[in-house]
């Protein structure tokens, strides 16, 4: 047995460390771990939301859900939305970051303006866009008709595929600043010598982008894409407020389906089953991301 | 010179297109009702008016919602920063079993969808009799704010040289003494960034507020303003735009005075390339 003062001190430190993390663990268990397990447990019941009465039904919720067309439609919508808005965010984000990396007049003002949509509340963003999209008095329709692109007012949110496209565009507008900032931070750390060498080799601006910039951005882009894919996949506010899943269920994604099942159709158990399945799908991305982070920390 | 001018024009037109919806929000909020229906719409209000702001503050529940949001975001931020600062210190500077797994659990919860947690949380709040209170929202907001703050503070903490703390310990300070006198001052900018982000996250939250609170007395701004849209018979867009501008005021203040902390938080967050 080692009873050296060193070992004693280390034991004391370990105890202090646990004491400091204790509040975190308590809160985590109460509001995250317990609800998470409770959600899985709930999914095995048929439960009527207002009275919270119901009965154990085992895995039949899951069997029902996989047989329902609505689940598969919502899953497809979620994927269309995620892939669509994410690709736009990445392309616009890299483009804007490359532009703002150059010497531009009033650069810091430009950066603030770009950052604003990301920080503004989704409620505000949606209200503004619904006003822009307004069929009769909205500025967008006015400009489109005025410039002769269309002759009839466009119904942006009430018909398909317009509603999905509008949603993807608003999502890209709201979230691409995240990509801009992350890419911009990385661009600043690329050594000038790399560009110098490429220039001496006779590479033009486009070749320099593909041969120097893009490979350097690779790592940060992987992280950004994983994170944004996870966040876009679980997006609720923007879609719920902008289209509410409509017309009918054409833009209804999985988070909206969970909400509808629990609080509009009052089927809490079924909603929990949807939520668990949704989480299982997300888990793939989450594990990849967590692994990525752990590897980076180890190195 | 010509190329530079063209490049600047291009960049600034892109920036202005992105910023246009926000510009339009301010313009609409200042237009008298009649000008709203003018075709073509004027790009600047012909007779600017603040009547919608007056209506908003006098005839609606806006101020109640605003007060609720301030209370809610402040309370969430204080609780979360307090817990997370100690937690991050423990996760970075102490060694005990399970520390690494704990860090990964934090990251996992940071990515977790709220929509999964909300069903049991709703049941929990109903059972505890906390539904429709601001307190239930503070509790619910820790589910996303605490993992977020912990993760951010953890990376700020990792950036502080370990030697500083060792030196203090050699000089006879206790761990907590060293934390107070050496670590905390170094961490302060990181704490400010994290607090700012936590505040903004709570200020903007919608889903929990929608599900957990159903009375005007304890509604925050997000659901409150949205309710003004749904419950009004004909939509008064200038009033809603005025509400949107007012709702963004804390954000504008943060942008004007604390931008340094805002961008620093971004860099230290999940995307540390």
Domains counted in the coordinates of chain B: how many?
Answer: 1
The biggest sheet of chain A amounts to: 2 strands, antiparallel
Structural class of chain A: mainly alpha
Compute the average pLDDT of chain A.
Answer: 89
N→C terminal distance of chain A: 34 Å
Shape of chain A: flat
The CATH topology of the largest domain in chain A comes to MetI-like fold
The fold-level CATH name of chain B is MetI-like fold
- Strand runs of chain B, count: 0
By CATH, the superfamily of the largest domain in chain A comes out as: MetI-like
What is the ordering of alpha helices and beta strands of chain B?
HHHHHHHHHHHHHH
Q: What summary fits the major beta sheet of chain B?
A: none
Principal-axis shape of chain B? globular
The neighbouring-strand order within the major sheet of chain A is 1-2
Total count of helical runs of at least 4 residues of chain B? 14
Helix/strand-derived category of chain B reads mainly alpha
Membrane topology (chain B): Multi-pass membrane protein
GO biological process, one term (chain B): transmembrane transport
Organism (chain B): Chromatocurvus halotolerans
InterPro entries (chain B): BP-dep_ABC_trans_perm (IPR050901), MetI-like (IPR000515), MetI-like_sf (IPR035906)
Task: Write a structural description.
Chain B: It holds the Pfam family BPD_transp_1. Chain B: InterPro entries: BP-dep_ABC_trans_perm, MetI-like, MetI-like_sf. Chain B: Keywords: Cell membrane, Membrane, Transmembrane, Transmembrane helix, Transport. Chain B: This is Carbohydrate ABC transporter membrane protein 2 (CUT1 family). The complex is a heterodimer of chains A (299) and B (273). Chain A has 299 residues and is mainly alpha-helical. Chain A folds into two domains: 5-56, no CATH class; 67-298, MetI-like (MetI-like fold, Orthogonal Bundle), CATH 1.10.3720. Helix content of chain A is 75%, strand content 3%. Chain A contains twelve helices and two strands; from the N terminus they run H-E-E-H-H-H-H-H-H-H-H-H-H-H. In chain A, helix 3 (69-101) packs antiparallel against helix 9 (205-233) and helix 9 packs antiparallel against helix 12. Chain A starts with a helix and ends with a helix. Chains A and B meet through helix 1, helix 3, helix 4, helix 5 and helix 6 of A and helix 1, helix 4, helix 5, helix 6 and helix 7 of B.
């Amino acid at each position: 047995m080692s009873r050296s003062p060193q070992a004693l001190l280390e034991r004391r430190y370990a105890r202090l460390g646990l004491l400091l993390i204790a509040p975190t663990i308590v809160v985590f268990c109460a509001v995250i771990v317990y609800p998470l397990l409770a959600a899985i447990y709930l999914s095995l019941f048929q439960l009527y939301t207002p009275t919270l009465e119901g009965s154990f039904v085992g895995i039949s919720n899951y069997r029902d859900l996989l047989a329902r067309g609505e689940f598969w439609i919502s899953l497809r919508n979620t994927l269309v939305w995620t892939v669509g808005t994410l690709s736009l965010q990445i392309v616009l984000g890299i483009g804007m970051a490359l532009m703002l990396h150059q010497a531009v007049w009033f650069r810091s003002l430009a950066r603030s303006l770009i950052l604003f949509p990301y920080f503004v509340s989704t409620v505000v963003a949606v209200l503004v866009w619904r006003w822009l999209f307004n069929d009769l008095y909205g500025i967008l329709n006015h400009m489109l008709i005025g410039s002769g692109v269309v002759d009839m007012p466009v119904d942006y949110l009430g018909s398909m595929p317009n509603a999905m496209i509008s949603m993807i565009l608003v999502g890209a507008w709201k979230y691409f600043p995240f990509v801009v900032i992350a890419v911009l931070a990385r661009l600043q750390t690329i050594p000038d010598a790399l560009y110098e060498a490429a220039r001496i080799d006779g590479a033009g601006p486009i070749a320099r982008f593909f041969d120097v910039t893009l490979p350097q951005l690779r790592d940060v882009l992987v992280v950004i894409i994983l994170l944004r894919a996870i966040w876009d996949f679980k997006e609720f506010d923007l879609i719920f407020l902008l289209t509410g899943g409509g017309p009918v269920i054409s833009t209804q994604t999985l988070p909206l389906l969970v909400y509808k099942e629990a609080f509009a159709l009052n089927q809490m158990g079924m909603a929990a089953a949807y939520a668990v399945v949704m989480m299982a799908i997300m888990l793939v991305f989450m594990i990849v991301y967590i692994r990525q982070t752990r590897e980076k920390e180890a190195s | 010179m010509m190329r530079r001018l063209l490049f600047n024009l291009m960049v600034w037109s892109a920036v202005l297109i992105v910023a246009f919806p926000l510009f339009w929000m301010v313009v609409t909020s200042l237009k008298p009702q009649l000008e709203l229906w003018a075709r073509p719409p004027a790009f600047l209000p012909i007779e600017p008016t603040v009547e919608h702001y007056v209506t908003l503050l006098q005839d609606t529940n806006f101020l109640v919602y605003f007060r609720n949001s301030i209370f809610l975001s402040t309370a969430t931020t204080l609780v979360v920063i307090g817990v997370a600062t100690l937690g991050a210190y423990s996760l970075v500077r102490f060694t005990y079993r399970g520390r690494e797994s704990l860090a990964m659990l934090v990251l996992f919860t940071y990515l977790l969808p709220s929509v999964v947690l909300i069903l049991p949380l709703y049941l929990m709040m109903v059972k505890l009799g906390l539904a429709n209170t601001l307190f239930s929202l503070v509790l619910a907001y820790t589910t996303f704010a605490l993992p977020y703050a912990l993760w951010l503070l953890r990376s700020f903490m990792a950036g502080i040289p370990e030697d500083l703390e060792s030196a203090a310990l050699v000089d006879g300070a206790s761990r907590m003494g060293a934390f107070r006198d050496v670590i905390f001052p170094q961490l302060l900018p990181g704490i400010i960034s994290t607090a700012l982000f936590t505040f903004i996250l709570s200020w903007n939250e919608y889903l929990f507020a929608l599900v957990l609170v159903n009375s005007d007395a304890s509604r925050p701004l997000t659901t409150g303003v949205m309710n003004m849209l749904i419950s009004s018979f004909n939509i008064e867009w200038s009033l809603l735009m005025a509400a949107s501008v007012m709702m963004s005021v804390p954000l504008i203040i943060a942008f004007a005075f604390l931008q340094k902390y805002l961008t620093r938080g971004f860099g230290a967050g999940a995307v540390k390339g």
